[in-house]
Design brief:
499 residues; alpha/beta; Rossmann fold; 2 domains; seven-stranded parallel beta sheet; three-stranded mixed beta sheet; 12 helices; 15% strand
Length: 499
């Protein structure tokens, strides 16, 4: 690994063809200098990376190509999956001439049988799968009202159902193995809504909820999931697909054969281009000829949304304004994704780029502020449930008590006051209408008289019972009117006084 990373241009001339190819795949533009936080235990001399087998869906996209290149540059094994209705299988297989570590495949993530076939072929070729990365995605720019049902369903089928198909079909293997890792590429659109990308944001929100829920379900099986949320990526990976290496001709016959091979390759390329053009035309017809803008398609705006300053055109205006000046390097992002596949403690989310960090931080801040603004609202009680105000604790209305307290309970506020302690005899025996409770202190030498109406019973000598009007404090009472409640208070002499 160290030799691979340190390979420079001077070593390339004397190295073997395979070493030369590995040097072209190694991370460049200072990507090797960045690293995940130490809390994740990223690849390092203390945690040397082991060779992993990657299965990358959406490998023909911008991010997928860069992750494929980064993994191969670090001596990992990659099965790169292109789109079956767009890419050509032969061209995908020729992207990297490393047959022992690279396999090109095609798949439609919307079709479960297609996903299952790709997983099976990868297992057959390399014997195992360690990391599954889903970089596939599809989006349409336009107002929610202007996007037809076909486009909306297609976005959900690709972004959400495609992710679910990949996870459901590979999870049994990871579960039996008690090891595995998913890197699901989401977006900042999965954390905040973007005008002009309503259905696309909805699919990303769905993916976020799916992964967050599954995180807890698969943790007992040592399976890790991470949502990768990149910001606007700059295409600084010009040499993403190295040209195929050819041996120099050593004789005239060899040169002639080489020329024939070149002619055949040119003819095959022309045929492939024609087929791709036909497929593209058919696809445009099926999808109402939506124009391509970056990796999104643009729906024609209706008259209410056709103005230059329409909020629904925000997404398109942003992409036009940035152009090729996106702030985040895709090479550095791919390097971090490779480290994410090899670190021991991956996070739930990995935000790539300053824009992603700031936008999601602002979103969470606004949510917290909104919660604080509205948390003091009181909602009307449901039918059958009445809110009890603080002042009503001692002023319960007339009605039947449903507790187990004993007493007169006739609603007149009269009570029998019997004081067994001579020190409190001043309260009297019969307070008419005073509404004061009957106090009865139970002692060991003065047991209760038994259970009967109008008397109380307490077997604990260290507890005095307060009976009287206002059974609302405990919700216990009996009889018609202000039911008598019961409150047990521990005597001070029996309390712990460790203070």
């Amino acid at each position: 690994m160290d030799d691979l990373r340190r390979t420079n241009s001077s070593d390339t001339h004397s190295a073997s063809p395979s070493a030369t190819l590995r040097s072209t795949l190694a991370p460049t533009t200072g990507a090797g200098k960045i690293s995940l936080p130490y809390t994740t235990d990223p690849p390092s001399p203390a945690n040397p990376p082991q060779q992993k087998v990657w299965l990358i869906f959406g490998a023909t996209g911008h991010m997928g190509r860069s992750v494929t290149k980064a993994a191969l540059g670090h001596n990992d094994i990659v099965a790169a999956v292109g789109q079956s209705f767009v890419d050509d299988l032969m061209s995908v297989r020729k992207w990297h001439d490393i047959p022992e570590r690279y396999l090109g495949l095609l798949c439609d993530v919307r079709i479960r049988s297609s996903v299952a076939s790709v997983i099976e072929q990868t297992m057959k070729k390399f014997g195992r799968v360690d990391i599954i990365a889903n970089c596939s995605g599809y989006g349409v720019i336009g107002a929610c009202e202007d996007q037809d049902e076909h486009e909306i369903r297609n976005q959900f089928e690709t972004n959400f159902m495609g992710t679910l198909n990949i996870i459901q079909l590979s999870l049994p293997y990871f579960r039996r193995r008690q090891d595995g890792r998913y890197l699901i590429f989401s977006s900042t659109s999965g954390a905040l809504g973007v005008p002009g990308l309503g259905p696309y944001c909805a699919t990303k929100y769905a993916v976020e909820g799916l992964v967050e829920s599954m995180l807890y379900e698969v943790d007992p099986f040592n399976i890790k999931l991470t949502l990768v949320e990149p910001s606007h990526l700059r295409r600084d990976d010009i040499d993403i697909f190295p040209p195929p290496q050819q041996n120099p001709p050593s004789a005239t016959a060899t040169t002639t054969n080489g020329e024939r091979q070149q002619q055949q390759q040119q003819q095959q390329q022309q045929q492939q281009q024609q087929q791709q053009q036909q497929q593209q035309q058919q696809q445009n017809q099926m999808q109402n000829k939506l124009a391509l803008f970056g990796h999104f398609k643009v729906a024609r705006p209706s008259s209410p949304y056709a103005t230059k300053d329409a909020p629904a055109a925000h997404a398109q205006r942003t992409l036009q304004w940035m152009g090729a000046n996106q702030p985040t390097s895709v090479v550095k992002a791919a390097e971090l994704v490779w480290q994410l596949g090899h670190c021991r403690y991956p996070p739930l989310r990995l935000l790539l780029g300053t824009f992603a960090v700031e936008s999601i931080r602002d979103r969470l801040k606004s949510v917290i502020e909104e919660i604080e603004d509205w948390k003091h609202l009181s909602f009307p009680p449901l039918e059958g449930f009445e809110e009890k105000e603080d002042g009503d604790e001692k002023d319960e209305g007339e009605g039947e008590g449903d507790g187990d307290g004993d007493g007169d309970g006739d609603g007149d506020g009269d009570g029998d006051c019997e004081e067994r302690d001579e020190r409190d005899e001043h309260d009297g025996h019969d307070d008419q209408g005073g509404g004061e409770g009957d106090i009865e202190r139970m002692r060991d030498d003065d047991p209760p008289e038994g259970d009967k109406k109008g008397s109380s019973r307490n077997d604990n000598p260290a507890v005095e019972t307060l009976e009287g009007r206002g059974g609302r404090r405990k919700g216990e009472g009996e009889g018609e009117g202000g039911g008598v409640g019961r409150v047990q208070i521990k005597l001070e002499s029996e309390m712990d006084v460790d203070d």
